[in-house]
Specification:
3-stranded antiparallel sheet; 5-stranded antiparallel sheet; mainly beta; disordered N terminus; 199 residues; Immunoglobulin-like; single chain
Length: 199
């Protein structure tokens, strides 16, 4: 009976052992619009089975966002991350996997700011005893919006309308709100819409 041993993976007792592959290197993180491009250099170990990319959103637990199979390998690889919906520090860990064993992690982080996220194209339709207030979601970074707030100020004169005197009449995720007017009024009404983003 012949016994074949792979000497590079055999310890002194003759048991097969497995060593961790070399970690990927050169992690680069770049912000592109509302995504983060995660780029890294391949492991120097041959026969890698896959690469795993994990992310942590704003200090949260790490979760798997991408598995790169052999057919997608290159000397440099990239993953576009659009899975996060909270601004802040986005952290990453990248592993090479061979024979079920993970390499050391390649780590890095970057700070993502959603910037000004504002509703657009607000309109107000006058109905019999109500105002229909409508608006469009922000054209960029809308996934970071957790709620819209509608404020209203009412005055006997148009010049008396002021945002600083407005009161909150709606808060939620819809992009339209029906404000009903009780009784008969000849007052002027003005509305404002603001956004609240995740933090």
């Amino acid at each position: 009976m012949a016994i074949i041993k792979f000497l590079s993976d055999v310890n002194i007792d003759g048991y097969i052992t497995a060593t961790a592959p070399a970690a990927p290197t050169n992690l680069s993180l770049s912000i592109v619009n509302d995504t983060i491009n995660v780029t890294f250099t391949a492991s120097t170990t041959t026969g890698i089975d896959s690469y795993l990319v994990f992310s942590s959103v704003a200090g949260g637990d790490y979760s798997l966002i991408s598995v790169i199979p052999p057919e997608d390998f290159g000397s440099t690889m990239s993953v576009v991350d659009n899975s996060f919906d909270v601004p802040g520090t986005q952290a990453y860990r990248v592993y090479a996997v061979k024979n079920g064993i993970l390499s050391n992690d390649l780590t890095g982080s970057t700070v993502f700011s959603a910037g000004a996220v504002e509703a657009s194209n607000m309109s107000v339709k006058v109905l019999n005893n109500a105002f229909l207030v409508q608006w469009d979601a922000p054209s960029t970074n809308s996934r970071f919006v957790v709620s819209y707030s509608v404020y209203k100020h009412q005055s006997a004169t148009q010049s008396g309308l002021a945002e600083g005197n407005a009161s909150l009449i709606y808060s939620g995720v819809e992009t339209r709100f029906m404000y009903e007017v009780s009784g008969t009024t000849t007052d002027f009404h003005q509305f404002w819409v603001t956004t609240t983003i995740a933090s």
